[in-house]
Structures are given as structure tokens and as C-alpha cells.
User: What shape does this take?
Amino acid sequence: MIKNVSDMKDFVPGSRLIVLSDLLQNSDTAQFCYRQNQMPPFRIFRERETYKNRLAPRSLEGIEVEVLLLQRYGYGQGSLKYCQSEEELTGFWRDYFTGNGAVNPVFTRIRDGHTAG
Assistant: This one.
């Protein structure tokens, strides 16, 4: 989805991107937390052909990114057994955004009607 947004013609430096997500990529190209080795550090993930050919956004240079993180419970167990913590997800996505030129992405956790910075 972020790739598709980045392809919009009026998405230019100075734009603001607000993402509301649990950050669990779950598609035919990647299944974060659900399958082993699907979410290595971003510096490794960006070298994969699926990233280069299907998931890499157009440059996010100069884009302000705010992520409203819908928290999940049960990292490291059950269907989320291949992610050990929320920090693992936010670290990957922080590196994804900055690695594609975004300006200092901000993450705000949203949980059961409450927010925490």
C-alpha cells in the first residue's frame, strides 16, 4: 500500500503520510511474524528481489511519516511466533521509511482506545 501511495503524482517532498496499521505485512510477498525469516533487518530485506520488484516505494525523500500503530498482543507465540516484540516491528519500519528518504518517522501506539507515545 505504501508503494501505491508513493506513486501518486501529488505525493512530493513536504507531503505528510499518516499510516494506521498493525505493521504486520501479510501478503503473497511477505508474511511478517507469521512465517520464519520473512522480516529480517531492513538492510537485508531491501536486497530481496520481491522488495526491489514489487514492494519498494518511489522515493519518500522529504516526506513526514506518522505511524499510528494498532498494537497486537501475543508477540512470540501462536500465530505471531516469529516476531518477538513490537520493537522488532517498529525498528524494521523505521528503517524502511528512513531508508527510503522519509524524515524522522514517528510512531504512536494505539491500544484499546488508549494511546501512549
In short: The chain is about 25% helix and 20% strand.
